[in-house]
Amino acid sequence: MTDTRNAEAAPMLTVPLYRLAHSRTGDKGNRSNLSVIAWHPALWDVLVQQVTEEVVARHFAARQPSRVARYLLPQLHAMNLVLDDVLDGGVNDALNLDSHGKTLSYWLLSLPVQVPAALADYLAGPTP
Amino acid sequence: MSQHIPHLRIGCAAGFSGDRTDAAAPVVQALIASGQPAVLIFETLAERTLALAQLARRTQPDAGYEPLLVDLLQPVLADCLAHGVRIVSNFGAANPADASRRIHQLAAALGLRAPRIAVVQGDDLSGPHHRALLERALGPAMPTEPIVSANAYIGAQAIADALRAGAEIVVCGRVADPSLVLGPAMAHYGWAADDWDRLARATMAGHLLECGAQVTGGYFADPGYKDVPGLTTLGYPIAEIDPDGHCTITKPAGTGGCINERTVKEQLLYELHDPAAYLTPDVVADITTAQVLPVGPDAVRLEGVRGHPQPPTLKVNVCFESGWFAEGEISYAGPRAEARARLAGQVLRERLQGLGPVRVDLIGVTSVLGDDASTWLDAPAAGLDEARDVRLRVALQHRDHASAQRLVREVTALYTCGPAGGGGVRTAMRPRLGTVSCLVPRSAVVTGYQMWNEGGMQ
Questions:
Q1: What's phi and psi for B347, nearest 5 deg?
Q2: 8 Å CB contact of A92 and B434
Q3: How far is A7 from chain B (nearest CA, A)?
Q4: H/E element holding B398?
Q5: A Pfam family for this UniProt protein (chain A) (predicted)?
Q6: If we measure between CA atoms, which residue out of B234, B247, B248, B354 comes closest to residue B296?
Q7: Does an H or E element contain B283, and which?
Q8: What integer pLDDT is reported at residue B379 of this predicted model?
Q9: So where are chain B's domains?
Q10: Which of the 8 DSSP states describes residue B410?
């Protein structure tokens, strides 16, 4: 956890997404879907602001998604990210050991996120 | 008057072909103990399971159904028949008729009476008389290679009809996974075929159940973040479905795992795309107003799902022979393990030039996160060569068996021709199956059921 406070802004922490949310990957054909589910409702707004289609597309640049669509489910404090054409053709065509792309959720969870320090108590996992 | 109908409970004891075969017994015991009307489902078909089943049937005509059929049913068949727990499954795969014959034999071998078995039909479009339909639907995507399987994802109606006609076991091939739950719910509550909200709610109950333990703490544990008790003895899920289709997910007492808001939300969104339009053959489900509510220890209720009219088309998956898949692995350990593994990968790429793309992975450095072009590996972060135990893995596919086999031979030759200290070569060759999908008009797929008896279909 990095403390990046400065004079003007409210104190912010930089933490990996897994401190804010959990995730599971599913696949259909050459398309992957990743859920992002807030550990706590207080963290939802941060997820909406920062886990955007553009940020996710950049984070998955090595998979060259042709499109990233984000669907928000605010009543569940969850979002669904749909990444097109990231599975090298899908389960029957990819050469990847993980042809389903099931491991991708934990790559997403490594995404760095800025969190107001005031929300630190809601973050999951051990605080250093 | 539907409030006076006892609620239906549906347990799921398999989420894929190859799931734990000791899952069903505790589920059946819990269903019986509830004293309520109950159904047990096994979901055993994934996107290519059917193609593999068709291949199995080529070499053995009475095969082509779930290979673990007997292992799944033997522990629970007697109790289900004795206590009226009906069984609904897609374990018929490519050969529901012979699966039914095998169940009949199993019942006899166990000293049980003959169960009333229904076989659901209509999903298999692999026959020559369906060729024109597939050609129209696929257009230029129609495979030129031999077709192995073609199956429509059919819906719940035939299952519901079979249960209403008294079937104790309903054997299906490719029905949509949630239809295994919706069918029994339709039969039990007598919902109208256009009661979209109720159909959608029971469909999402099916969606929560269809991957077995994935809603009860399986595929969830992450030590320190998501701790799950008793992964070795996971309880499989049971949905209590009310007359409006809302459901409560529980699991058998005394089993491992857990059910909470988090496990249910992960499974609710699993393999979903637009949450406002989850397409099934039966209904379009909309979870944008869904609520996931803890209602007790290991008990979570799903409410607020809405439904929209079913799509006018059915999805069809077509699998075709697409050549051969070859892969090989070799390990390097100790100082400069990564550098030696990279060198071996380079040698293989040069030796296999002209065969098409060769995927190169360094297990222990990067293996699954990059794409098939291995670009991650080609642009390593500066200063990294710290891996001390690296397994090189290469893979390619080729139409031609002998060409694919060259990869196997070249990996093996690394023993004497590759970098120093390589060991533990393993190689594999598998026939490759390609898949294309299309939509066909609902009217082109005639579904129904037939009761099975010892002489075959009635």
A1: -60, -45
A2: yes
A3: 33
A4: strand B389-398
A5: AtuA_ferredoxin
A6: B248
A7: none
A8: 67
A9: 2-317+438-457, 321-435
A10: H
* 3 state SS of B204: helix
Tell me what ipTM this predicted complex has: 0.93
Whether the Cβ atoms of residue B240 and residue B9 lie closer than 8 Å to each other: yes
Q: Which residues contact A106 (CB under 8 A, 6 or more apart)?
A: A18, A23
Per-domain boundaries in chain A? 2-122
Which of the residues B204, B222, B273 would you substitute to probe the A interface, choosing the one with the greatest number of A C-beta atoms within 10 Å?
Answer: B273
DSSP letter (8 states) at residue B369? S
Residue B337 DSSP one-character state? H
pLDDT band for position A7 (cuts 50, 70, 90): very low
User: What does the pLDDT look like over B261-285, one tens digit per residue?
Assistant: 999 999 999 999 999 999 999 999 9
How close is the nearest chain B Cα to the Cα of A8, in Å?
33
How close, in Å, is residue B131 to chain A by CA atoms?
Answer: 22
Quote the distance between the C-alpha of residue B129 and its chain's center: 28
Cα B143 to Cα B54, B94, B138, B280, B320, distances in angstroms:
17, 20, 9, 25, 7
Question: What pLDDT sits at residue B46?
Answer: 84
pLDDT value of position B13? 98
Angle at which helix B337-351 crosses helix B401-417, to 10 degrees, equals 140
Nearest to A25 by CA among B211, B15, B209, B270: B270
Q: What is the pLDDT of residues B333-363, one digit of tens each?
A: 999 999 999 999 999 999 999 999 999 999 9
CB-based contact A62 B319, cutoff 8 Å: no
CA B175 to chain centre: 11
CA nearest to B272 within chain A: A33
* pTM for this model (two decimals): 0.94
Using CA coordinates, name the residue in chain A closest to B267.
A24
State both tokens at B298: 């290991």
Separation between Cα atoms, residue B424 and residue A107, nearest integer Å:
29
- What is the pLDDT at residue B455? 62
| Contact yes or no for B269 and A64 at CB 8 A | no
Backbone φ and ψ for A20, nearest 5 degrees, come out as -105, -25
* CB-based contact A24 B372, cutoff 8 Å: no
Topology (CATH level 3) of domain B321-435: Alpha-Beta Plaits (3.30.70)
- Determine, for residues A31 and B273 on separate chains, whether the beta-carbon distance falls below 8 Å: yes
Contacts of A91 in chain B (CB under 8 A): 47-48, 435
| Nearest beta carbon to residue A33 from set B272, B291, B437 | B272
Give the separation between CA A111 and CA A106, rounded to whole angstroms.
9
The DSSP bridge partners found for residue B330 are: B392
pLDDT in tens, A8-28: 568 999 999 999 999 999 999
Intervals of chain B under pLDDT 70: 1-3, 379-385, 454-458
Question: What is the distance between the alpha carbons of residues B18 and B22, in angstroms, rounded to a whole number?
Answer: 12
Q: A74 at the B interface (CB within 8 A)?
A: no
3-state class (DSSP) for residue A2? strand
